[in-house]
Every structure is written in structure tokens, then in C-alpha cells.
């Protein structure tokens, strides 16, 4: 398995190189003169020229690419001029926010989708099954921006149950001591109940919003594969043993039904980690989705390139992880 | 002898898109402790549905089971699910035709074997593990410790069926229902598995319901035989009587179509046609269309059961006639 993992990691390198090249070219083709964006529209032409020289924008593309690659292999993702920080420093503060949001929404999605998908399958064509199917249809078709605004107007504006949907924690409250960068985890680690409550209250709406799509897809997949599994002989064996229905369904059924859903969950996870642009924008969540949007609007090359590359790496790693989990769940799958 | 398992007037209906279909009709049999009853018939004759009906393993939404199933005089058909679970796998256990698919592919043998033990005996942890290892040794698996950690796909069909038998025997059941336990196995392995079942029966006094289409297996294993055709038992007898003087033309046909070494016959005898589907059973005898002794009455009136002594019963017009039919239609 170790050899398999290493080989898979090696195979990732060429595709990552390809991504680096394509992203580099695409960012350069985008309209917008970065030198002009840096200096501002009103700047004197001489000053714009000077900035262009300083950043190397006047060099031929191939030279620019060369110096970018030189930086990259040294682990330097460059400098984001629109924030004034090194890209890595920016990501260090923003990435945990995205991770926290992703994990929370994934947890919500799975906690809802798994049991409901299983129950819907075991009571096929019941009221619960029909409701689950309608919900999953709504979940996968409702526009997130609309749902987000609806939630804000209900839970914040009308009912006042949740704090203003701005960021990860209210202005007056100190963020918890930094350990993982995930506020909920950090405040638990430092036993800071005020921060914990407040950060959970901030997390609920965006996480719920973001979980809808995954929830809908996973629920459907689990339902379908569970229906499939129910027909299997080993389910009859389990029943003939006198096991309880719950044990039959959730042990013998779910593990088998979960295997095909795993790929879907992995893909979803990977795409969420790349930043949920709409959700982060609606809830002013300081994650990487927001960061990339700002960078694109500012024609800030370095962060765009960095995030694209990092997303690709994460995607590859998650897919690899999914495959390795397959091997754990299904003993018939072994990697040589 | 007081019967251990008593099945009477068992009927099973399936809900299909074409409406309700009766797949098993009015099946009755009894089984004493230590006895082996063979249920024989072609594919589609309702053997497996009968066994699944006894265990109430058919999906409730698709099948309706009527009739009475008594174990030690306790009615099973009216038991609540929770009570029934205490019987399944504990007092009545079952092994299936397909050992390749009957075990869950994602759990280790040890895990699956211990489940029934934990469920029914209250043994846990080390005790359950030791019992599981002992069971594996009992079914002739020498590397039992290693087997506990194996997954089903690592085993051959014969090994898997041994594991299934170990699993079925784990709570020392009074009745073992074996649904074509050797059909999917190589001939040499078949003999081993049958020997194993006989040995376990001798040691533990388990009663066996053996469902098979193989008359050779019946001759070797069974005390009593019920021949099923199109959802009904058409003949019932002890094994010697059945082989020596079969009464029902279908039984005769089955026996003739069994190859024998001494035979000089060039071609093997076969009963023409196929088992009708439940929608095409017709009004009269269900075997009429394939029967070589067919009479006019056979197409019109269902035959009643005629008894030959205490142990042989046959559902055929050849032995009854008009008077017999009218006398028995109420029963």
C-alpha cells in the first residue's frame, strides 16, 4: 500500500506541472493591466512603467514563467500585492476558515444524508421516502445565494437567533488561542466557552447553506445503493441469524452501501476545500473562496496561481485518500 | 413420535404487478428430532419459498404467508418480530444455496460467526471467540484461528459453505433448514459437506429440512421425502418407499430422469415441458399437461390426497377417482 501511495503521488507531478502552465497562461490572458491596478487609474504613466519593471511585467512571458517556477520550487508562492502580504501568510489565516466551513458542512450533510438515505431505502415508497426524495431534489436545485439570503433574513433579521452574518466571530469577542486555526476546535481546546458559542453561531448558517448540495447528492446515492444492497444474499443471512433490523441495516447494509457513495463524497470534499465562493461572499466568511475572488478582481496573479495549484494538489490527495479508504472498507480491494 | 416442527396448511402469496399470486399452496409436513426431511422438486416448484416462509424471511411487503408453523407446539407464525428473532439462528437456523454471496464481503469470518453467538447465547469477548474457533474446528477447518481473520473472498466455495454451517450450528439449533446446500459446489466437495451435515446431526441430534433437486442427495441423507410440484406437495413418503414404489407420475418421472450406472438406456429420460408459472396452474391437476397417465378428470378437478398406509401420501387422480375427490375436497 505504501508503494502504491508513493507511485500515485509521483503520477500527480506531471498533471500538477500542466496545471501550473495552464494557470500561468490563463492569468496572463485575462484582461486588466496589473501594473495599472497596482498604481491606480490616476497614476502618472512613468510611475506605472516603473511598477511594471519592478514586478517584471515588462519581461517576455517565458522569462516571467521561468522566475515564477524558480520561486515555486523554493516553496515561495509569491506576494499578493492587493493585501500586501506573502500569499502563504494570507493563506495561513484564510485556509483554516475554509477548512472549518468545509468540515462543518460535510458533517451536517453526512449526518443528515446517511440515516435518511438508509431509512428511505428500507421504507421504500413510504411517506418518508417520498419526502426524502423531494428534499433531495430541492437540496440539489435551490440556488445557494437565495437560500443564504433567506436564512439571514429569517434567523438573523426576523428571529434574531443568530448573530450578524459577518465573518467567523463577532467583533467584540477575542478569537480563541491559535492552535489549529479552526475556531470551534481552538475554543474547545482552550475551553473558551464565549468564543465557542459565538463561533458556532457564526458557523451554522454558512455550513447549513453549503451542506445542501452534498446532502442531496449523498442521500440519493445512499438510498440507491442501499436498495441494491437490501437484495443481497448476505442481508438474508444476517436476518436468518436473528440479528435486529437495526444491526442488519446499519452494519451489514450501510458499510456496503457506503462504498459507492465514497467517491462522490471525496469529490465533493475536494471541491469544497477549493473555497465556496458564493457562500463565503454572502456570509463574509474570510476563507480562500473570498480571497481568490478578490485576487481575480484585482488581477493579482500570485494568489490565483497559488490557490489553483493548491486546490489541484488537495483534490489529488483527497482522491488518493478515498482510494485508500476503499481499501480499508472493502477487503476485496488491495493495492499493490 | 411427537413432532418437533409442525408445518400445516402453509400458503404463500406474492404481490406482483399482475396481482396476487399463490406460489406455495397448502403445504404441510412434520419433522421429529434428529430426522431429516427432504423437499425435492424442480426449479420453480416452491421449495425455497417454503423454507423462507417457515423462517418468515420473505419481505413482508411482497409476500403474505398463511398457515401454521409450530416448533415444540409454539406457534411461530403469530410471534412478534422481536420474539421471532430469538428463534431465528437460535432454534431454527438456515444455510443457503450460494455460499459465494451469503457471507458479507466486508466483514471478517470471525466477526460474522460471533454475531449469532453474541446475539443468542449471551457469550461475549473471549468466550464468544473461543466458541467460534471451536465451531470452525467442528466443521473441519483446521486453521481455525487464521480463518477467523479471513475475509469471505479469500475462501473457496466449499470453505465458505463450511463457515455457513458453522454459523448455522453456532447456537445448537433444533432445526436446520438447508436450502440446496451443495448445489453450487464441486461434486467432491458436495460429498464432504453432506458428510459433515450428517456427522453434526448425529452428534447434536439436529433435525434437518434439506431442500434439493438432487435425488441422489435425498437417498443418502433423508428419512422422509416431500416431492413438490408447482407450489404443492404432490407426494410424501419415507425415503425407501418413495424410491421403491413411487405413486405420483411426477415422482416416477423424477426417479426415471435420475441417471443410473446400471442403465443400458442411451438417452436419459426427461419429463417433457416445464413447471407452469403460478398464473398458468389451471383448474385441474397442475401436473396434468406433462403427465403420461393423464385422464380427462385431471384437467378439470384438482386431485385430492390419497394415503397409502401411514407414511405415504400422493396427490393424484389415479388412486382416487370421482368419489374420492368429492369426499376430500373439503379438507
UniProtKB/TrEMBL annotation, chain A:
Subcellular location: Cell membrane
Membrane topology recorded in Swiss-Prot or TrEMBL: Multi-pass membrane protein
Transmembrane segments: 9-30, 101-122, 134-157, 199-218, 254-284, 304-329
Signal peptide interval: none
Domain ABC transmembrane type-1 residues, every copy: 95-326
Pfam family, one: BPD_transp_1_N
Biological process terms in GO annotation: transmembrane transport
Keywords: Cell membrane, Membrane, Transmembrane, Transmembrane helix, Transport
Stated name of the protein: ABC transporter permease
Organism this protein belongs to: Paenibacillus paeoniae
Lineage: Bacteria, Bacillati, Bacillota, Bacilli, Bacillales
UniProtKB/TrEMBL annotation, chain B:
Listed GO MF terms: ATP binding; ATP hydrolysis activity
Primary subcellular site in the record, as a coarse category: membrane
Originating organism: Paenibacillus paeoniae
InterPro entries in UniProt: AAA+_ATPase, ABC_Ni/Peptide_Import, ABC_transporter-like_ATP-bd, ABC_transporter-like_CS, Oligopep_ABC_C, P-loop_NTPase
BP term (GO), one: peptide transport
This protein's name: ABC transporter ATP-binding protein
Topology with respect to the bilayer: Peripheral membrane protein
Residues covered by the ABC transporter domain: 5-255
Cellular compartment(s): Cell membrane
Keywords assigned by UniProt, alphabetized: ATP-binding, Cell membrane, Membrane, Nucleotide-binding, Transport
Cellular compartments per GO CC: plasma membrane
Pfam name, any one: oligo_HPY
Family under the similarity heading: Belongs to the ABC transporter superfamily.
Amino acid at each position: 500500500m505504501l508503494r502504491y501511495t508513493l507511485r500515485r503521488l509521483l503520477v500527480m507531478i506531471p498533471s500538477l506541472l500542466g496545471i501550473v502552465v495552464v494557470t500561468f497562461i490563463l492569468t496572463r490572458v485575462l484582461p486588466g493591466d496589473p501594473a495599472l491596478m497596482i498604481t491606480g487609474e490616476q497614476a502618472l504613466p512613468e510611475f506605472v512603467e516603473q511598477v511594471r519593471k519592478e514586478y517584471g511585467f515588462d519581461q517576455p512571458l517565458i522569462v516571467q514563467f521561468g522566475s515564477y517556477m524558480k520561486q515555486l520550487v523554493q516553496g515561495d508562492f509569491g506576494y499578493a500585492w492587493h493585501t500586501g502580504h506573502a500569499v502563504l501568510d494570507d493563506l495561513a489565516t484564510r485556509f483554516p476558515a475554509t477548512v472549518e466551513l468545509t468540515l462543518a458542512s460535510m458533517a451536517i450533510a453526512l449526518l443528515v444524508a446517511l440515516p435518511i438515505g438508509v431509512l428511505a431505502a428500507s421504507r421504500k415508497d413510504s411517506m418518508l421516502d417520498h419526502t426524502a426524495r423531494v428534499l433531495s431534489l430541492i437540496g440539489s436545485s435551490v440556488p445557494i445565494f437565495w437560500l443564504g439570503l433567506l436564512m439571514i433574513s429569517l434567523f438573523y433579521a426576523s428571529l434574531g437567533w443568530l448573530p450578524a452574518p459577518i465573518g467567523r466571530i463577532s467583533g467584540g469577542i477575542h478569537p480563541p488561542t491559535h492552535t489549529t486555526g479552526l475556531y470551534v476546535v481552538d475554543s474547545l481546546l482552550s475551553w473558551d466557552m464565549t468564543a465557542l458559542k459565538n463561533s458556532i453561531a457564526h458557523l451554522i448558517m454558512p455550513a447549513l447553506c453549503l451542506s445542501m448540495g452534498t446532502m442531496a447528492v449523498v442521500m440519493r446515492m445512499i438510498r440507491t445503493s442501499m436498495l441494491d444492497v437490501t437484495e443481497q444474499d448476505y442481508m438474508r443471512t444476517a436476518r436468518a441469524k436473528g440479528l435486529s433490523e437495526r444491526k442488519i441495516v446499519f452494519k451489514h447494509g450501510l458499510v456496503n452501501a457506503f462504498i459507492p457513495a465514497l467517491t462522490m463524497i471525496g469529490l465533493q470534499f475536494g471541491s469544497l476545500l477549493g473555497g465556496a465562493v458564493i457562500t463565503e461572499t454572502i456570509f463574509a466568511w474570510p476563507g480562500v473562496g473570498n480571497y481568490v475572488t478578490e485576487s481575480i478582481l484585482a488581477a493579482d496573479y500570485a494568489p490565483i496561481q497559488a490557490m489553483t495549484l493548491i486546490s489541484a494538489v488537495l483534490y489529488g490527495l483527497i482522491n488518493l485518500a478515498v482510494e485508500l479508504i476503499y481499501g480499508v472498507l472493502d477487503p476485496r480491494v488491495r493495492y499493490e | 413420535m411427537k413432532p418437533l416442527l409442525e408445518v400445516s396448511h402453509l400458503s404463500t402469496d406474492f404481490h406482483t404487478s399482475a396481482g396476487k399470486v399463490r406460489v406455495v399452496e397448502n403445504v404441510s409436513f412434520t419433522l421429529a428430532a434428529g430426522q431429516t426431511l427432504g423437499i425435492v422438486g424442480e426449479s420453480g416448484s416452491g421449495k425455497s419459498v417454503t423454507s423462507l416462509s417457515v423462517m418468515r424471511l420473505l419481505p413482508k411487503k411482497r409476500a403474505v404467508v398463511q398457515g401454521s408453523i409450530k416448533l415444540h407446539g409454539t406457534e411461530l407464525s403469530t410471534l412478534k418480530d422481536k420474539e421471532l428473532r430469538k428463534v431465528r439462528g437460535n432454534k431454527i437456523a438456515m444455510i443457503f444455496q450460494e455460499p459465494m454471496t451469503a457471507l458479507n464481503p466486508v466483514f471478517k469470518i470471525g466477526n460474522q460467526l460471533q454475531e449469532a453467538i453474541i446475539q443468542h447465547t449471551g457469550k461475549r469477548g473471549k468466550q464468544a471467540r473461543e466458541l467460534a474457533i471451536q465451531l470452525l474446528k467442528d466443521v473441519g477447518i483446521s486453521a481455525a484461528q487464521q480463518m477467523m481473520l479471513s475475509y469471505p473472498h479469500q475462501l473457496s466455495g466449499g470453505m465458505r459453505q463450511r463457515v455457513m454451517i458453522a454459523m448455522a450450528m453456532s447456537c445448537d439449533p433444533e432445526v436446520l433448514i438447508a436450502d440446496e446446500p451443495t448445489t453450487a459446489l464441486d461434486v467432491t466437495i458436495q460429498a464432504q459437506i453432506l458428510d459433515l451435515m450428517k456427522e453434526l446431526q448425529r452428534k447434536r441430534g439436529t433435525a434437518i429440512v434439506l431442500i434439493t433437486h438432487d435425488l441422489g442427495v435425498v437417498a443418502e441423507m433423508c428419512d422422509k421425502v416431500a416431492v413438490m410440484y408447482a407450489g404443492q406437495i404432490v407426494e410424501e413418503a419415507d425415503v425407501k418407499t418413495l424410491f421403491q414404489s413411487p405413486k405420483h407420475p411426477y415422482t416416477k418421472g423424477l426417479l426415471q430422469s435420475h441417471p443410473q450406472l446400471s442403465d443400458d438406456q442411451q438417452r436419459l429420460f426427461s419429463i417433457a415441458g416445464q413447471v407452469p408459472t403460478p398464473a398458468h396452474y389451471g383448474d385441474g391437476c397442475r401436473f396434468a399437461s406433462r403427465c403420461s397417465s393423464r385422464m380427462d378428470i385431471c384437467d378439470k378437478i384438482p386431485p385430492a390426497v390419497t394415503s397409502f398406509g401411514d407414511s405415504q401420501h400422493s396427490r393424484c387422480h389415479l388412486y382416487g377417482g370421482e368419489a374420492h375427490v368429492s369426499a376430500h375436497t373439503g379438507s
